[in-house]
Write a structure and sequence with these properties.
By secondary structure, this protein is mostly helical. It is built from seven helices and no strands.
Length: 119
């Protein structure tokens, strides 16, 4: 396990997701917030997204890992359709195509750990 970074505040993640164009009306909204927070606590989750991260989120929200994955992908698809420029800015490099779920979570994790360390 890598050293933990300061945990980003859920409110900061929420505000950023809203700026990216998604709202709490999406089932995956809270899943993404939790995924970012978990991956900040333990970077191993970024390596084992399907085997560890999704099941952990599913357990917390009493749903299936499959549902978690699908709903997070829906969030990413909507962000990519509505605000790819801001997502690229957050990533710190131009995104040529829609990121995968694990890429998206890693991008957001890095953004918030960097943001937290500068605050």
């Amino acid at each position: 396990m890598s050293p933990a970074h300061p945990e980003p505040k859920s409110e900061n993640i929420r505000k950023t997701l809203l700026r990216l164009g998604v709202t709490p009306r999406y089932v995956g909204f809270d899943y993404v917030i939790y995924a970012i927070r978990l991956s900040t606590e333990n970077s191993q989750y970024l390596i084992s997204v399907t085997k560890e991260l999704y099941p952990e989120i599913a357990k917390c929200y009493r749903t299936s890992a499959c549902s978690v994955e699908r709903n997070i992908r829906t969030i990413i698809t909507n962000i990519w359709k509505k605000n790819p420029e801001l997502l690229s800015k957050i990533a710190g490099y131009p995104l040529e195509k829609q990121p995968t779920a694990s890429e998206f979570i890693a991008i957001m994790r890095e953004y918030f750990t960097t943001f937290q360390n500068q605050a």
